[in-house]
Amino acid sequence: MSLDSESTLVFHTMEEIDQTYARLTKTFQSGATRPLEYRRRQLLQLARMIQDNHTAFEDALIADLNKPRVETTVSEVSHLVTAVLYAVANFEEWALPQPCETKEAWRSSWGATLYKEPKGVVLIISPWNYPLVLTINPLIGAIAAGCPAVLKPSELVPTFTQLLADLFPRYLDPDAYAVVKGGVPETTHALDLRWDHIFYTGNSRVGRIVATAAGKHLTPVTLELGGKSPAVIADDCDFDIAARRVLYGKIQNAGQLCVAPDYALVLRDKVDAFVESLRKAHDEFWPEGDHPLTGSVPISNIVNPRHHARLVDLLNRTKGKVVLGGEIHKDKSISPTILTGVPEDDVLMDEENFAPFLPIVAVDDMDHAMRIVNSKHIPLVIYLFTNQEELKDKFLERTRSGQLVLNDTIMQLVVHEMPFGGQGESGYGMWFGKTTFDVFTHFRGVINVPTAHEPFFQSRYRPYTQDKYEW
Ligand code: NAD
């Protein structure tokens, strides 16, 4: 084992990673993870693990990110317990063979059916920002589908990763589910192995590395990436409600959330009114005597000093004007920061900010807003605040994004039944609920052609003599 210089996390060696891979492959080949009863037991154990260790997970995320307990409870723990129980209630139905309707009556007797087969041994690589939900949620689908899985959580959340590694063998079958602790070299080594699916969540630079490595083995990949998700504020919406909802989405985990509104597009003559509403919302969230950085429940930390320095640099270089917040707690956190007068080509409009910053770009009209959205990579989500049917339709028809959410932020994450995923630079492949089961499932087509049909087939056999085709 080697010791990472930046944390106390003891990484697995390459030999240990190989051994884990070999053990899980053997388990898959034995068929042990296939029976539905086995899958159900493992899913229930997973739910038990999360519930029993609710406080330990909260403590770990306080140690790694200073994430407020209530945010861990709502967006990670409760979300996961609901997701596991949803899978437990439904996975047997998802796993049922699916008959295929055939048009011609004579072919119906062939019994064309899609069988739901586990793909095999899968690798799940997750990031630091929502480490519990982004590591365990894909695992729910893998277990439900009958696949053994190796999880590789982020080295940037060492307390969480160690906790998960300790808990796994106490709750789950160690021959089928394992946590690998590692940084870039260990992940690179793991990516050299032949997996049956790789599920990666993180940034698009590493997404390319993962897709390239998977390509060597023709391994299918799901890429859940990020991007610049805009909040578009039309003039007909209720500004106080829109501002409260945008600010809520922006401050979760200090803006380090893949579906956080990255920037806002507001009509030029409404910017002041919208800022006023944001100010009101801010004062509601942190009333007199409370403060985002020093209050009793401060905003989450920026994950590490390197990311903190990146954000301070952005604040120094932006041409926008800070109209709210902008306070910096050295190396740790930054208060929610609203900026106006941000040009379209500003540094804050370049990459995904992943920060508690809300740059506001003034637009002439909604067509101008659409042009800005369309000039960038396809975002994971567009948040549009309006009640105008025509405008909703325009955005649906003339923009592209992973999802389009009307009049709120983040709430698409609680709709387990709606597949979630990006497009282009924000990723590819969908998941959530049954779709995650589908990710790890091979739909194996089976037909049985009756020997009694042999007389109908004479014309397909050689020799191709004319008399066979005289119908
Ligand atoms: P990160 O730095 O923790 O990296 C993610 C994973 O990739 C980690 O497990 C890490 O060990 C591994 N990794 C890093 N460099 C690697 C390399 N060179 N080779 C192989 N593996 C490597 O997290 P991050 O990428 O900073 O995460 C934040 C990003 O993730 C943001 O862009 C965010 O929008 C995106 N994200 C997307 C979703 C989604 O569902 N679409 C969810 C959360 C986060």
Structural description of this entry:
It contains 15 helices and 20 strands. By secondary structure, it is of the alpha/beta class. Strand 10, helix 10 and strand 11 form a beta-alpha-beta unit. Helix 2 runs antiparallel to helix 4, helix 3 crosses helix 4 and helix 4 runs parallel beside helix 6. The radius of gyration is 25 Å and the shape is globular. The structure holds nicotinamide-adenine-dinucleotide. The site of nicotinamide-adenine-dinucleotide has 28 residues, from helix 8 and helix 9.
Which key phrases capture this entry?
471 residues, alpha/beta, 7-stranded mixed β-sheet, 20 strands, disordered N terminus, binds nicotinamide-adenine-dinucleotide
Count of helical regions: 15
* Main beta-sheet annotation: 7 strands, mixed
State mean pLDDT (0 to 100 scale): 96
Number of strands: 20
> Which structural class do you get from the secondary structure elements?
alpha/beta
* Helix fraction by DSSP (H/I, runs of at least 4): 40-55%
* Order of strands in the sheet with most strands: 12-15-16-11-10-17-18
Residue ranges: pLDDT <50 for 5 or more in a row?
A: 1-6
Distance between the termini: 74 Å
> Which kinds of small molecule does this entry bind, naming each only once?
nicotinamide-adenine-dinucleotide
Report the sheet-strand fraction: 15-25%
Radius of gyration: 25 Å
- What is the overall shape? globular
List the helices and strands and how they pair.
Layout: E1 2-3, E2 10-11, H1 14-30, H2 36-52, H3 54-65, H4 69-94, E3 98-99, H5 105-108, E4 113-118, E5 122-125, H6 131-145, E6 149-152, H7 158-171, E7 177-179, H8 184-192, E8 197-201, H9 204-216, E9 221-224, E10 230-233, H10 239-251, E11 263-267, H11 271-285, H12 305-317, E12 321-324, E13 328-329, E14 333-334, E15 337-340, E16 357-363, H13 366-374, E17 381-385, H14 389-398, E18 403-406, E19 427-428, H15 434-439, E20 441-446
Parallel strand pairs: 5-6, 5-8, 6-7, 8-9, 10-11, 10-17, 11-16, 15-16, 17-18
Antiparallel strand pairs: 1-2, 3-4, 4-20, 9-19, 12-15, 13-14
Helix pairs in contact: 2-4, 2-6, 3-4, 3-7, 4-6, 10-11
The chain binds nicotinamide-adenine-dinucleotide.
Residues 125-129, 134, 152, 154-156, 183-184, 187-188, 201-203, 206, 209, 224-226, 258, 352, 354, 380, 422, 427 line the site of nicotinamide-adenine-dinucleotide.
